[in-house]
Amino acid sequence: MAIRKRTWKKADGTASTRWMVDIVDSNGNRERRQFESRKEADAYRIASEGQIRAGTFRGDAAKLTVKDAAESYLLYCEGRRDRGERMTRRNYDTMDGHIGNYICRDPKRHDGKPRPKKLKDFDGGIGGIKLSQLTTGRVNDFRDRLREAGVAIVTSRKIIGTLQQILAHAVDRDMVGTNVARGVKVIGRRDEGARKIVPPTKDALRALLTVADEDFRVKLAFASATGVRAGELHALRWQHLDFSKGEVRVEARVDAYGDEDVTKTAAGMRTIPLAQPLILMLKQWKLRTAWKAPTDLVFPNRHGGYTGHDNMIKRKFLPLFDISADKHRAQPATCADTPARFNWHALRHFAVSCWIEAGLSPKTVQTFAGHSSVQVTMDRYGHLFKSEDHQKAMDAIAREMLRSHQFD
């Protein structure tokens, strides 16, 4: 690796000097860079020699930016999506949003289109930074700017996660030597992040079941008894139900675009027992529906296709709260008060809370819920696992501590 001085005259007759660095990497590839001072040239030479020895020298790739890596990663994801390799349109659009709205901020991204309600104003992107100049410190600064802009802790974690995937892809493609975002964490205040889940009460669910029409009541009862996710519910087919064994197999899900795929995680492939009253409701529903072949959807739209979840919520689910309120106003003595509104996903929380109340073990609850680990189950629902043994243990400890003391 050599440094040489190059001097020439400009058109106006003045002299110009540059310091040239000739580099040959371990593969025999040659690169030439020029600098305004000998000091800069020496610094680049020393850094490059160290990178060559470590096997991290990327030559021309040093000119690539975070935006270049992000665009390469999205192209890679497009290929995976088109081949059906565990990349749905929903996954792709989410990452594309992280990139276009935050990582490589594009101010014209939403021109002429509705702006997402939760999108924060943000101009602290890192798309223009060269990969060779991106450091863990700069990633940490980017993370802090996200939080300062008011981006929620969960969203910030997802954005950093997308950046980590981009840089991992860049490493695989020899665009950069190391993934400097690996290990960067988003730590919020103690009162941020996941909240303790408070499921709907049995009275609240009963109030909705009472006012629901006969067909929608089956769907409502199934969701609140099995705890399946919305996408899993809409992808359920009659072949997944076994009335003789009294169980349902969860094997697929469908997203907002109507793309069907396997469940969210490997643990999502599961079998859930069905109660006899629910089996009776399903059998009666099968007699009424026009779609009853093994491969037909259990809860299809009127054309036999996937039910649009948002449409179902607006037209079927949310109106139940208004119907319940009207009935209570008309007959307050005989009709229960209207429950506080909750979203459809709360039906999953209701099912899990009922399993816990019935005394099922955390491992069993994890299996039925399709969580990736028992830790996930306990993080979300651990406060619902209550036992008289806990109180007995506390009483015994107190008696031991205070047995020598007398109180008035």
How would you describe this structure to a colleague?
The chain is 46% helix and 10% strand. The chain is mainly alpha-helical. Strands 1-2-3 form a three-stranded antiparallel β-sheet, with helices on one face. Strands 4-5-8 form a three-stranded antiparallel β-sheet. A hairpin with a 5-residue loop joins strand 2 and strand 3. Helix 6 crosses helix 11 and helix 7 packs across helix 12. The radius of gyration is 30 Å and the shape is elongated. The relative contact order is 0.08. The mean pLDDT is 85.
- H/E element order: EEEHHHHHHHHEEEEEHHHHHHH
* Residue share in β-strands: 5-15%
Strand order of the largest sheet: 1-2-3
Number of helices: 15
Topology diagram in text:
Blueprint: E1 2-9, E2 15-24, E3 30-35, H1 38-54, H2 66-83, H3 89-103, H4 136-148, H5 153-172, H6 202-211, H7 214-226, H8 230-234, E4 241-242, E5 247-250, E6 252-254, E7 260-262, E8 270-273, H9 276-288, H10 309-317, H11 319-330, H12 346-357, H13 362-369, H14 374-381, H15 388-402
Antiparallel strand pairs: 1-2, 2-3, 4-5, 5-8, 6-7
